[in-house]
Amino acid sequence: MVRGGEIGIGTCLLINGTPHIVVEREFVSPGKGSAFARVRAKNLKNGNVITQTIKTADFVEDAQVDLVDCQYQYNDGEFFHFMNNETFDQFEVPVAAHEDRGPYLKEGETYTIVMWEGEPIDIKIPYKMVFTVVESENYVRGDTVSGATKPVTTETGLVVRVPLFIKQGEKILVNTESNEYVERVNE
């Protein structure tokens, strides 16, 4: 059980018997009455997002989840295939419930999988990741004003807006929460 005032982004809650992960939370302290937390939680089974209001003094059932490090194998269009790094067990995560994660999955990379009752329900993506630019338009210096950007495509199909000086074949660091360019990576 977790107190309403202790709920944070990323907290796993059990709502109507289904695991949900908190994606947004706002604490409200009205002039009259008790404070409460307004949370938006994503259903980890089907991807639906709900909004709930929870008093800060109330207790909510948290979902008992396990975090397992797994290697991403491949995507067959219907499922993302992973292998547990410790037991070498292979399992599938439905693409439909986690389509937004697809462009951030690189074959052979290790990701943390959230397991609930032995079933994979979520894929944790690192906050920042390095990608290689595979498709980029060339721009000539002086074409535009300062701060101009262009779209590029990475090896996973992720499209990111980057400064004009980024060329095909270069590596870039991307913030996976906002899908924004952070910096060029020199290796």
From TrEMBL:
MF (Gene Ontology): translation elongation factor activity
Boundaries of every Translation elongation factor P/YeiP central domain copy: 67-121
Domain Elongation factor P C-terminal: 129-184
Gene Ontology cellular component list: cytosol
Entry-linked PROSITE patterns: EFP
Pfam families listed in its UniProt record: EFP, EFP_N, Elong-fact-P_C
Swiss-Prot/TrEMBL GO biological process terms: peptide biosynthetic process
NCBIfam families: efp (TIGR00038), PRK00529.1 (NF001810)
Function: Involved in peptide bond synthesis. Stimulates efficient translation and peptide-bond synthesis on native or reconstituted 70S ribosomes in vitro. Probably functions indirectly by altering the affinity of the ribosome for aminoacyl-tRNA, thus increasing their reactivity as acceptors for peptidyl transferase.
Protein family: Belongs to the elongation factor P family.
Protein name (database record): Elongation factor P
Species annotation: uncultured spirochete
